[in-house]
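Troubleshooting entry. Yesterday's outputs looked truncated, so today I'm pasting the complete records for two proteins to confirm everything comes through intact. If either block looks cut off, that's the bug. Protein one:
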Amino acid sequence: MSRVLAPRDTRRTWMRVAMVAGAATVVGFGAWSLRRFDPNAADSPFLPCLFQAFTGLYCPGCGTTRALHALVHGDVVTAIAMNPLLFLLVPLLGVVLWHASGRRVPLPRRALDMLLGPWFWLSLIGGYWLLRNVPVWPFTMLAPG
């Protein structure tokens, strides 16, 4: 027996379809751009990090474009070397988004509360930002290659 959708359910369904289609378009265009253009080249259409240009220091996002460029070309080792935090954040953000969508996350409540708290994210990103600018080994491994 099929269920008839109310107009509100139909609108919600179309909104989800539109959001998924929009996200797929953005990801597809981004992947195409990263395959087509090299962010390391002098004539690259990608913007350099303005924070690094003004301060000479690395921000938490420095190396992300080059990491994604290496990733779409299949070079996982170089991608991780460019921005190791990116490969930690993607699964963590996936868990947070999964939880935000109303689905049950198979994590202990304490771990989930920590992931959803702002202090965790401020500590993680702020600590990474600070440590990747320390010019002493092993912290130099956090700087983009």
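Protein two, checking that the full record survives here as well:
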Amino acid sequence: MALSLAPVSLLVVLALPPDLQRDTTGTAPVQASVPLRGAEIHPPYDGAGDVDDFERSVAPELDRLRDAGASAVRTRISWSSFEFYGDNRYSEAYADKVARFLDLAAERDLKVIATLFATPCWASSAPDRLKRDPDTGELCGGAYWDRGVTRYPPADPSDYGDAATEVARRFGDRMEALEIWNEPNEVTETFLVSDDQAADYAALVKAAYRPVKRIAPELTVIGGVLSFSDGEFLTALYDEHDIQGHFDAISIHPYSENRDPAAPCRPPVKGVDYAKWDYRCGPPWIHEIMSAHGDGDKEIWLTELGSSTCIEPDRESPDYKWCNVSPQEQAQYTLANYRIAADWDYVRAVITYNLRNKGDDPDDREHQFGLHTTDLTPKPAWHAFERAMRE
């Protein structure tokens, strides 16, 4: 059943924070300067039953983006699920759901940015102690993804290149962009467990780029996909691992944790350059690095950014610096993200993370990034997002 948005929209208008009336966060019209604007959604590929059940679970979220005036949606493709059964043995059930998602997005005029990551067990460089089922001893038995196996890079980067090429062959004409991995620089190794993240990531980029472009020359292949505006990591990719010429654009995730993205940039302190974590300074820093390496004409895509409304009173918690953003502040920050980015002519996409809360724990950072709660009740930030889509 289609969801009626009219009553929800009225309630959100009434909840509009006064701070959203200010116009000091940016100077350029959002639509004119940022062609791709939208949010990320997390379709339940593995737990949604057949493709019809999958469509029923995904369509309401895509409807929200369409009705808000968004032009893009970001989603994730799990290499581990796609090529689950072994080398060149693809899960057609999983592929059918990816195809249905792309069709649903196209029906709503939403351009799809897909990021491909998560190594299947058969290809993973994870140690055997993780790859073996602790109960049966079977190699790649049980729920190996719960044992961290998918976070390791492939033993042979060409296996990733082959998978990316298959994604391009099947779906490339229905995608706007394909991102190579996700946040390979994350210090907690959430997505890439490696003794040398830059080297292992560069190998993936090089293995995928040219084969994908041969299959889908019009598909934008994106490198970087960096957690924060990590200029040091990008410099290492250029200077130590020679990634120039192996990507069409660079994407970053310029979060400002729980700070106002419109706040002034902080000066370096004791050799620490805070541009990595300051929204106003981070993307320009990335652009400067690209320009210094001859890639100033290439675009930057901001494929994740946003604020979590988590509540974390414990100052010793690693999530403390992310939390304690009120719903009204989340709304203010959401609008500021788009207005500020509109002044950067090298930015092609701004994607809010994410459309719906991933859970209901008020203290969990990951659970509370959504513009809606888990039952698709809008937060005040949703109205700010709608406004940004139409400015």
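Both blocks look complete. Sanity check on protein two: The domain at 6-119+154-263+273-390 is CATH 3.20.20.80 (TIM Barrel).
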